[in-house]
Design brief:
By secondary structure, this protein is an all-alpha fold. The chain has seven helices and no strands. The chain is rod-shaped. Mean pLDDT is about 80; it is low at about 235-250.
Length: about 250
């Protein structure tokens, strides 16, 4: 049972880790800004509808005011005709009363619509202010997102470079260089060793040939000995040999 529980917890941890990798902060921020823009569009649509209600209420209020005026004017005209004998007084009074009733209805409607106009205009003003605030926030968020996106790119590049440098300093490259130095030193020592062995294996003839090949010209040697006063008085030399024979290349 404990094994199954541990296995379940391990699966949850791996799922959360995978989810964290999928949740790119930059993409989530950009999606959040897109969501705000959608909210802004909906708010603009709501503002347009609210303004339409205010415009219609104002128009209906103006019509109600005009109907009130018309009804009052008609009542006056009816009473004037009755006074002029063109209409019976009782009929004029009845019709004028009806016009005054319609006038009152129009006045009541105009008052109600006037209050509605005030409410709608207040709502329009509040929503307009909210929309301006939302626009400002979206603009600020977009600017900040662009800045953070640029910083994220620089940070990612810097992180990659530093990681590479860290791996170079702490891993195989330094070790390879050290092994290369060791190998070069070993090869140099081996070459020197072979050189010494080669010198040790030379024959006596090789040594003589080396000495003779490096000996200066006999005449030059005699001239040098003469300058140094190393030649004998009997015409001989320090080695007991005749210089003329040396010059002729033999005894």
């Amino acid at each position: 049972m404990n094994f199954l529980k541990r296995l379940f917890n391990l699966g949850v941890a791996e799922a959360n880790d995978a989810l964290d990798k999928l949740e790119d902060p930059i993409k989530m921020t950009e999606q959040g800004i897109r969501d705000l823009k959608e909210d802004l569009n909906k708010s603009l649509q709501g503002l347009a509808e609210l303004k339409a209600l205010a415009i219609r209420a104002k128009r209906d209020q103006a019509n109600a005011v005009q109907q009130s005026r018309d009804s009052e004017q008609k009542a006056v005209m009816l009473l004037q005709r009755a006074a002029a004998g063109q209409l019976a007084q009782s009929e004029a009074d009845r019709l004028a009363s009806e016009m005054l009733r319609k006038k009152q209805e129009s006045d009541n409607q105009a008052n109600y619509l006037g209050q509605e106009v005030i409410k709608h205009e207040e709502s329009v003003a509040k929503m307009s202010q909210a929309i301006q605030t939302l626009k400002s926030k979206i603009s600020a968020y977009e600017n900040e997102a662009r800045t953070l996106k640029a910083r994220a790119k620089v940070s990612a590049a810097t992180k990659k470079i530093n990681k590479q440098l860290s791996q170079i300093d702490s891993s195989s490259t330094v070790a390879m260089l050290e092994r290369m130095k060791e190998k070069v030193a070993q090869d140099e020592a081996l070459a020197e060793s072979y050189s010494e062995i080669n010198n040790e294996t030379k024959s006596v003839d090789d040594e003589v040939n080396k000495v003779l090949s490096s000996t200066p010209d006999a005449s030059a040697l005699l001239e040098l000995k003469s300058k140094l006063g190393l030649l004998g008085t009997g015409g001989g030399n320090a080695g007991g040999q005749n210089p003329n024979l040396l010059n002729n290349g033999g005894i």
